[in-house]
Amino acid sequence: MALIFRTAMQSVGLLLSFLGWILSIITTYLPHWKILNLDLNEMENWTMGLWQTCVIQEAVGMQCKDFDSFLALPAELRVSRILMFLSNGLGFLGLLVSGFGLDCLRTGESQRDLKRRLLILGGILSWASGVTALVPVSWVAHKTVQEFWDENVPDFVPRWEFGEALFLGWFAGLSLLLGGCLLHCAACSSHAPLASGHYTVAQMQTQYHHQELETRNTNLKH
To answer: Would you tell me which of 30, 125, 149, 184 could form a disulfide with 165, CB atoms 3.0–4.6 Å apart?
Structure first.
């Protein structure tokens, strides 16, 4: 029963980590981190991502233009690019390492302690990936709120608001964090049965040696 529960925990943790990793990649390249609705022209909407700005018009559809310079970007967008790339890389490494530590993987059954360490390392990498995904998304959201309520900007000037990519990024980060927690818990729970099993084997070996010594002593007396 404990083995089934541990295997299920590992599978769910790996699945959540994989889902969060995929969503993190989508968030990185989705040009909807911010949206701008024009009151004067409701048929035209603007969106902004980490790489480009797009305008959506009912007549011509979506047209996008890449940012000309990395250094000319605001600080939150520059740092967000780096952190999102880091999140994607850490998420991939976490999935790769955790995969080799699963109980359902038949290779390396004699190295249970190594598989346990791989699961712990995979969980830590998933945590780090989740944190590095949540930080840029939350930072951009914080700057958007500050600019939206800036009293120095006239009321008639359009304001940027939250885009779909921010919510997707939050969900991705939380999925990576939860997946890492489950992987770590599964690795910690796998240590107890293993230690118990080693203790039982050692106890049986000790009893066997005692019985063997008693048999020899009996034979010597006769």
So the answer is: 30
